[in-house]
Amino acid sequence: MTFFWSSWVTILSIACWAGILGVLLMVLKYKPEVEEDGTTGHSYDGITEYDKPLPKWWLVIFFGSIIWGIGYWILFPSIWPKSWEGIATVEVDGETVPWTSHNELNSELESNNNVFIASFEKDILERAGATGAMASLTKLDELQTTLRRSEKPPADLQKEIDEQVAALDPYVAQLSQSPEALKVGSRLFLQNCAVCHGSNAKGATGYPNLTDNDWLYGGKPVDILTTLHKGRVGGMPAWRDQIGEDGVKATAEFVLSLSPEHGDVPGKVSNGELDKTLVTQGAAIYKQNCVICHGENGKGMTSVGAPNLTDNIWLYGGEREVVRDTLRHGRAGVMPEWETKLGNERIMLLASYIYSLSNNNVNAAPKAVQEPRDAQPAEMKSEQATVETEKS
Fold it and tell me: Residue 33 pLDDT more than 90?
């Protein structure tokens, strides 16, 4: 609230309070002349008027509300909030701070979170035999608190935070076998992630499938933890201005040729026959522009979130025109960070649940025949929660 409006509300409040109190005192002080029978002499339609005092219960309530109002002004920042913070305080992040609705909410959230953490340690970590994670979680919380409170944090502080996150890797794998951890993790997923990935975690067009074994940024527990803590920003640049429409069509044809749906020999497939001439032209364009992210063999790079182009898993669909559209206009996606929203313990549970969805088959041999991507347009596995880089 601006100074003008806070001043306006304050002046009105004080003026109303003073006016009502003044009227009440004036009424109590006023003593009219009365007749011998106790009436004021005023009569109308046979009804005479007495001068009786106000009921004491009414006066107690009235004066009590006035006293309560004064107390409220003193306790809370109700008079000129920019200048008067009130004397009421709450505990937030280990510090005593003036009361505000925002601080009160944070204080209650911290109180509830402390209850959750106590249950997390006793009912989940201890039962799973993963109490060793508490040392890293405690240290991680201390480092994050230092980072939040420092205007100029130490240069190596973020590195230390990353190291503590990485130290949780084996415990996430351990919790992925814990029924208690998976139960809570699934609830966290439904509350926070299902809006993008679906309640079954199979994603949709532009939203990665979390139940297969194809990952943009890697599927190890530490990779999932890093994604949840920091989020991801993916980008596939637009290429039409650089390579032209003919280059877009040629490159798309070469990308389609990498998929097992087509193989080395063009034939009748869902996208129709591949044009060998365009494939050859596209290979040259790919080598010049695309290998820096997707690699010479098209297998992609988890370090930058570049997808594998040689399988039949597509984030936006593997139809010829969809691939061309990706090359023309590019793709951009953001996976939000959850560190400040969920906290370290909940992220750990959420990561263990996501890891459990497919970790049993991580080292399994790839299937000889994969389902067509156009039948399942969202079968791209990544911990990224929203739109990510398109295969192209």
Answer: no
